Amino acid sequence: LKGLAERLGLPTVPRRIEVFDNSHISGTNAVGGMIVAGPEGLVKSQYRKFNIRSTELTPGDDFGMMREVLTRRFSRLANESDPEAEDEQSGMPDWPDVVFIDGGAGQLNAVKEVIAGLDLPREVTFIGIAKGEERDAGREKFFMEGKEPFMLPHRDPVLYFVQRLRDEAHRFAIGTH
Question: Is beta strand 98-102 parallel, antiparallel or unpaired with respect to 28-38?
Fold first, then answer.
């Protein structure tokens, strides 16, 4: 986590990371998945799935699905949670320090629209992860507000860690089907 903070230029070492991914079956049965990780690793008891409810979305609209999932997650968090509270069982904060979005600049822009419309009581860093050319692992591009898109070195342990998180979010979203 310290390496992640250093590599990505985060203000603090993250205690709670949330990763979001969407899944659908040929445009139907759309779901969003959220996984959680922290100093102790993956926290499966805090994973969440979101059945996409909107009937306004075009089948397979990843941006629209991401908007809905993040709106639901952060609206509820802002309304029901103290930004400084911790879960009694895990000792993990309720609020994420970092949120990874499976997708590139388009998905990150959709998230920024959602977040701009909410009055969040706490700062959260949002990062988009786009799969590399030909979906080649190791060539992921990272998108962060105020920075040019960048890549991490091919054999960087931080890259492996982020890939593992992204892959777990993908597995969880697909597994909800």
Answer: unpaired
d(Cα 55, Cα 38) in Å, to the nearest integer? 35
Torsion on CA atoms 55, 60, 64, 68, rounded to nearest 10: 70
Residue owning tokens 């890939």: 163
The two tokens of residue 130 are: 């786009």
Three-class DSSP category at 135: helix
DSSP bridge pairs for 86: 93
Q: What is the DSSP letter of 44?
A: G
- pTM of the predicted model, to two decimals? 0.90
Residue 89 is predicted with a pLDDT of 67
Place of tokens 């892959």: 167
Mean pLDDT, residues 109-130 taken together: 88
Q: Where does the pLDDT of residue 162 fall: very low under 50, low under 70, confident under 90, or very high at 90 and above?
A: very high
